[in-house]
Amino acid sequence: MLKVKALRCEHLNNPIGLGCLKPRLSWQIESEKMYVSQKRFQLQVSVHPTFEPLIWNHFTYSDQSILFPYEGPPLESGQRYYYRVKVWAQGAGDTEPEESEWSESGFWEMGLLYEQDWKAQWITVKERSIHEQFQTRAPFAASKYFSVEGKVKKAVIYATSLGLYELEFNGQRVGDAYFTPGWTDYNDRVQVQAYDVTSTIREQHNRITVTVGEGWYSGYLGWQKRKDTYGNTNALLFQMKISYEDGRSEVICSDSSWEETSCAILMSDIYNGEIYDARLEQQAAEHSSLTERKMMQVVSFPLSHLIAQENEPVRVMNRLKPVELIRTPKGELVLNLGQNMVGWLEFKVEAPEGTVLNLVHGEVLDQQGNFYRDNIRDAAQQITYICSGKGTEIFRPHFTFQGFQYVKLEGFPDGVTIEDFTGVVLHSDMETIGVFETSDPKLNQLQHNIVWGQKGNFLDVPTDCPQRDERLGWTGDAQIFARTASFNMNAASFFRKWLRDLAYNQLENGAVPFVVPDVLKGTFADNMDKTTAAWGDAAVICPWTLYQCYGDKQILVQQYDSMKAWVDYIRAQGDEECLWDTGLQLGDWLALDSEEGSYFGATDGTLVATAYFAYSTHILAQTAKLLNRYTDYNTYKNLHEGIKMAFANRYFDDAGKLTSNTQTAQVVALHFGLVPEKYKTQVIQELVRLIEKNDMHLDTGFVGTPYLCLVLSDHGYTDVAYNILFQNDYPSWLYQVERGATTMWEHWDSIKVDGSFWSTDMNSFNHYSYGSVGDFMYQNIAGIDVLEAGYKKSRLAPKPPANLTSAHGKLETPYGTLEVQWEIVNKEMKMTVHVPHNTTAEITLPGVMEPDALQQIIVMQYPSIQYPPGDVPQELAGKLGSTGKQAIFQRSGDHEMTFTVGSGQYTFQYRCN
User: Fold this and answer.
1) Which of 46, 105, 677, 823 has its Cβ near the most Cβ atoms within 10 Å?
2) Distance (Å, rounded) from C-alpha 252 to C-alpha 138?
3) What is the pLDDT of residue 728?
4) What are phi and psi of 564, to 5 degrees?
């Protein structure tokens, strides 16, 4: 039976507080048939769940089932809209398209769309206490009492802050989001969250309390200890719309009638942690009886900066039980969570009033097994809790987060146990869409480390690390990892929001900052300003990656001017138009072939810069063509050809050898298509020679590592790529696994072979960049890749490594589940693939058979069909029509076999070497 399922609006499930005026709607098709493709659809939108009357009824002949834009009447602020879909789809054996029933309805709800919709005022306290040690302003709390007159039909809160806020209504925390309103460049954009609180409102004695902390707005940011980056006044903006059953409505707004209330948080800073005095909780609870009333102060901040929430907010995503509570050789009490994580430690304790508890967070133990935190640099990462003495107390922090596996506990009573603690994992609530598993536990642990590196660093913006005094949105790290991130999680909205800030932070000349939001003010170090290749190229590579992975052409429209400005900026930098050979470049950052004491790899920085110049120009030309900007397409296509020629003339000698003879130089030249045809064999062989010279190990850094294994595999050296991947001594990915890593490291030797540490000035144990190898593992071991944007057409072509007996890859694409599972038992290959409806796939059977041997291939498929149309082998097409369940055909030789199929599940079995 044909069904429509998984309705989404702007990649989200039933969002409220939406800000886009033409939301895009997506759905998936469910059917027991194969080769199912959508022929037409009907889409209905109404303000009533009964769909009577309709405000938009759209019928069209189209196979589009993702990101179809609403084109009905203008949308209204605060209004909820219901939508449903039915499709006509044709499967194998159908002479006419089958009509589905209506889908279950989804909805979206608009936020406050226009400046005039706001009646609220920004408010703050008149005086703030300053914490003496950390020089941070204490959070403040504001409250409002009100009653309602009549039966409430609906109540929605719209809230934001300059800083971070938490909202409580009638004693209950409102919403499950944390670190709201999120980190944007507050000079241009401040997000607003919407909350439906209809079930919480009462007729009498309603109380709203909002607590506001400094957060990213005015707290410490960057290792230079910058403060007040966006301003020095934290403020709240709050508006509640109450709709009554009788048609009346009213609004409750933040204004000078709100009262300041007691707050038990004495200090809360993202880097330094939090100080909480539980003895002050009673004062807050008794606030209504206080004789001294302090009223809030109205402040000015542009309402024009307000935007609706754009990405999934940060939520509690996991809760971990610690694995051990130990006494170190120094006698310190240390808790081990067993996983390097990001979030908080929640605990319960019973202790006398005034007892001071300290929790100090770190990532590793040292060689002697003692608590270690020197790599955290100046970030205190400490929670101080002062007990109220009133029975069992439970606490979790508020406006701070820590990156840690180990916590040193100070001041806790003797009876404390491991059961008193829980690790609360926080990150942006992106849907997990990827699965990668193999028969090798170490490789599975590497995948685990990659995913947990993403969890720890995708906290509202893609940070480099989550623990030390940095935690910044480095552009290079983001673009390097974007494809792997999009295999693991649905990062479409996450990156869309971050890329908007990238465009806002871009300088007038097109230069892209090192970090976004740009708290470094365009400067990385005293002698490095503006930007550098591979980092600034995030402006082009990230939007293109999102388009490829999610089929979202709108992201290219949104970012096009930014993409073009970046390429034009590079164009103006070099001594020649087609070379970027000026300025100081980061090059292959942290590569192992660097000089002693240097962070810069041995690869010529201008070679890297010009290679990325070519790559971004090529992407820009393809984007221009896709968006029908043909003048730009011709301009940048010709520029790309010029860069290729200039690169060959500058960086190849007369013998066809690259002037910078490093692994990374060969990799970027090959991956970015810059090697003249006559030199390709020579260059790939030189790369292999350099790897062999290094005892089959890599020596690449941030630039070369993401593409190393991909280049080897794409040029016929998959065995060499696997040799590198499965190394377990230094330097390698599995070396980290062998040393007990649970996330990715910043350096290949963050922990050295002798157990000592890399330099304390830059040594993160949760730094996802080298996790970019996940892209290679999905594409080659699982065999999943995209051929047409959004996986409208996919490639399923696993290349089984000799030392694996099985692998399983699964990806929830916009169209549905794309899956590959293969297993080799007693020299018999069995591979099962699943292709989602309304898509096609190019399947390649691995060429692992004995040379020149006649092999029998069994193809099984479910359910029974009469005849599968499409580009399949003649033997397969003929046999499938005979039984519908199983086909047997033959081939000879050890070559790969490739053919295209429609949706459905297929199983292939044959003897292999």
Assistant:
1) 46
2) 26
3) 97
4) -65, -40
